[in-house]
Amino acid sequence: MMPTVFAHALVGGALAAFLPASQRSRRLIVGLAAVAMLPDADVVGFWLGVPYDHPLGHRGFSHSLCFALLVGCIAPLLLHRGEAVRMRVLLGCGYAAATASHGALDAFTNGGLGVGFWIPFSDERLFAPFRPIMTSSIDPAHAFGARGMRVLANEALWIGLPVASALGLVNLGRVISARVR
User: pTM of the full predicted structure?
Assistant: First the structure.
C-alpha cells in the first residue's frame, strides 16, 4: 500500500528545480523520478515470501534514509560520470532527497505498517502524525478502477497541488531575482 508511482515520480522529478540550472536536463529529471520510485521495488518480496514487517519487507530498508544515502552516492557515479566531483556531490544530494521523498510520502498514507526510516539501526516503522494520502493498490488491475480514480484525485490535492505551488514559488523567485539584478 502506497501512493501511486505517478505521485512518487512527480515529486522526484520536481526536485530538479532545486538543482543548478546547468544540470536540469531530461536525464536528471528522469533519473530523479526513477530513484523516487525505486524503493517500491521491494514489493517483489511479497512474491518471494518476505513478510511485510521484515526489515527487507515492503516499506522496510528500501524506504530507509540509509538506502536513500546509498542511492545518493551511487546514482551520480552512474549517471553523471563527466561531472566534477563537487557537482556529483550536489547531484548526489538531489538523488538522495528524491529517494527519501518516497518514504516521506508513504508516511503520510492512511494504510500499511509504517515506514522503516531508520533501518538498519532500528526496525521501528513510523507514520507521520497527519495521514491524508490514500493508499493505492499494489495490484495494477485495481489501479484504474473507481477506487484508483479516487486515489489519483486525492494525490492531486495532497501531492500535486503542493508540488505545483513549490515549483511556482521557485520560478517566481527566479523571475524576481533576475529583475533585481
Answer: 0.93
